[in-house]
Amino acid sequence: MQFSELKNFLKQHKLRVTDCRLDVLQLFKSKKHALTSRVLEDELTGYDRVTLFRTLNTFIEAGIVHKIPDDSGVARYGVCDSKCDAEAHHHDHVHFKCDECGNVDCLPTHHVPRIEIPGYIIKDSNMILNGLCRACNG
Ligand SMILES: [Zn+2]
Ligand SMILES: [Zn+2]
Ligand SMILES: [Zn+2]
């Protein structure tokens, strides 16, 4: 993604453009997999942990990235599709976790099946599939 595109992207989400936001956004857009905050810290050493964490939270609130539920205790973040904004996140896509390399991918074109259970109000649903990713099963 071009620098000017990144700037416009932030503006579209009503965010002030800062160097840290541009760098974090660039990193998210350049990676095929979901990112952990550890990866952010390792790749963007010019910023302290607090600044990166704050930027991450700003992006979650703005509907740019979402936290991926994971039982490993390591929080991972994936890029949202264009339907998300500061009002709400709108996605029900499936996530895939690779047993071999440990990468987690968003699968935006695959949706969690809608389930109706009488007497229950379902607000959110998550599905993590696991197995071998494309890179690991070749
Ligand atoms: Zn979202
Ligand atoms: Zn893999
Ligand atoms: Zn996702």
UniProtKB/TrEMBL annotation:
Gene3D superfamilies found in the cross-reference section: Winged helix-like DNA-binding domain superfamily/Winged helix DNA-binding domain
InterPro entries registered for this protein in UniProt: FUR, WH-like_DNA-bd_sf, WH_DNA-bd_sf
Domain of life, source organism: Bacteria
Protein name: Transcriptional repressor
Organism: Reichenbachiella ulvae
